[in-house]
Amino acid sequence: MKKRRRIWGWIFVAPQLIGLIVFAVIPLLMSFGISFHSWDGIASSMKFVGIDNYIDQITDPNFRKALMNTLIYSVMFIPLDLILALLLAIAVQKIKGKSFYRLFYFMPVVTGSVSVGVIWTWIMNGDFGLLNNLLAAVGIEGPNWLADPKIVLFSIVIVSVWWNVGYNMVLLLAGLQNIPQVYYEAAEIDGANKWNAFRHITLPMLSPTLFFVLIMTIISSFQVFDQAFVMTQGGPMKASYTLVYHIYQSAFVEFKMGSACASSMILFVIILIITLIQMYGSKRWVNYEQ
Fold this sequence. Notes:
Layout: H1 2-34, E1 37-38, E2 47-48, H2 52-59, H3 61-93, H4 98-106, H5 113-123, H6 130-137, H7 152-177, H8 181-189, H9 194-222, H10 226-231, H11 243-253, H12 257-285
Antiparallel strand pairs: 1-2
C-alpha cells in the first residue's frame, strides 16, 4: 500500500517536476555552461574562454550602468509597491463590495505587459499625453515623463506599481483575513488604540505574508524588462537601461550569447544572495502562529 501511494504521489507531481526540470533547471545549467564560451547563438561551434565573459561584463560600462539603474529602480519600486498594497488591503478589508474592489485592483495584473507599456506610453507622452493634459487642467505644467533622463526611471516605477500592486494587495488581503478577530477584541478590552493594534497584532500576524510578498517583489524588481523595452528602449541616454534589457541586448542584438549568459549568472547570484539574506533575517521579524 505504501509503495502504491508513493507511485501515485510521483505521478501527480510529475507534470510540475518535469516542467521545472525542462524549463528551469536545464536552461539554468546550459546558461551556466555557455557563460564560459564565446558563441553567437547561430554557429554550431563554441570557443571556451574561461571567465573572460565575466571579466568583460564587470568591466563593461553598459553592464555597470544597467546594474545601477536596476538598483535605483528597485529602491524606488519595492517600498512604494509594498506600502501601497498594504494600505489598499487594509482599506478594502472591511468595506462592502470587497470582491469587486479586489477584482478591480487585480485586473491590471492579468493585462499583457506589451499592452500596458503601449497604453502608458500614450498616457505619459510629453506633448499630448493624458497625464499632462490632466495636470494642465489644474495649472501644472507636466514634465516629459519618458524623454527626461532624470525622471524616466521613476515613470517606469509608476507604471510597474500600477501593474503589480493588485497582486500584492490580494495576497496581503488574504493574510489580513486570516488574523483571528479575537486578538483585536482582547486588545480593545485592554485599551489599545488602532495604531497599537496595527503595530502589535496586524504586522506580527501578517509578517509571513509580508515576507513572501517582499521576496517576490524584490525578485520581480531585479527582472524588470518589459516596461523599459516597450516604453523607452532603454533610453534616453540609457537612463532606463536595466540589467535584463542589457542581457537581451547582448544576446539578441549583438549575438554575444556567452556574455549574455554571464550577465544572467551574475543576476542570478545577486538575487540568490539577497534572498538568502532575507531568509536569514526573517528569523528576527517573521512570526508564525503556534
